[in-house]
Amino acid sequence: MTAAESSKRPPLISVVMPAYNEEDTLGITFQRLEQTFADTSCEWELILVNDGSEDRTLQQATSYRPTTFRMVVVDLSRHFGKEAALSAGLRAASGDAVIPLDADLQDPPELLLEMIARWEKGAEVVVAKRSDRISDSWGKRVSARLFYRTFNMISDIHIPENVGDFRLMDRAVVDTINDLPENRRFMKGLFAWAGFRTEEMEYVRPARAAGQTKFNAFRLMGLAVEGVTSFSTAPLRLVTYVGGSVAIAAILYGTFIVMRTLVFGIDLPGFASVVSLVAFLSGIQLLGLGVVGEYVGRTYIESKSRPPYVIRKVYRSDAE
Ligand code: UDP
Ligand code: MG
């Protein structure tokens, strides 16, 4: 194919959708996507990754007969989590541009049109930024804000606030991410790490179309720790500083006591202060040990180089 011919070919867009127990939403999501792309000249494919769903998600996806697009269903061997499912989807996508999209219609498919338009004008990444978080609970809003602030303060990369996985990425960006060998994959961080010319567009995130969120406070906390330890060693440095400061304070206090004893003679020490000091110090030591342990654990798991996910089977159906 000559360059002129290839530039005439309509671009292929891959929509990557991780799905875990989404039987209630898939039908409407497919329809909305199909309607959206009906207005464009793009060719598109849907990569649905079944993240070990226990309901009929897989049957629904494989029995759907697309008429206007190509459907690839990647069935993982068990539940691996969204980050792994998304990685599997990105590797299976063959489009010139790739768009991860939640299965629950919280990422409105209509926005794809503007993303694609901006990409055609030269953006390599177009991220969708939530203009507010009113569809979230108070607790989630506060903890999210705290996470982004802390993360951006202590790590070398910058994750823009209120931006999720919903974005368009050029093939070059996707190739970069696919080539990263690490198997604990905090995608938001990897996306930001990859860089490239990025544009933002704002949107209002609607509530879930049906079903329940798959992330409770505990899992979000895990994801936050995962994110920080993946992209920063600042907590280790912090432990060193805290340890150093406490040691200096202890030396000063010790000197003070010796001097006081020399000058004023021996007085009766208070046990309460000794006990609370010991408790405080052992608390700090355990905290430090925990932080170090978190990093050692990560290194241990990475060193085994197990793949982040296992694929049971890939189903393909072309537009009829
Ligand atoms: N998801 C997944 N594996 C998981 C959790 C979620 O594949 O372990 C998918 C889920 O099916 C959905 C997307 O990730 O398509 C976002 O999940 P959810 O809507 O529960 O997250 P929230 O919108 O509450 O952040
Ligand atoms: Mg959701």
From TrEMBL:
One of its GO terms (molecular function) is glycosyltransferase activity. Residues 14-175 form the Glycosyltransferase 2-like domain. Its EC number is 2.4.-.-. It is a multi-pass membrane protein. Keywords: Glycosyltransferase, Membrane, Transferase, Transmembrane, Transmembrane helix. The keyword NADP does not apply. InterPro entries: Glyco_trans_2-like, Glycosyltransferase_2, Nucleotide-diphossugar_trans. It is an enzyme of class 2 (transferase). This is Glycosyltransferase family 2 protein. It comes from Rhodanobacter terrae.
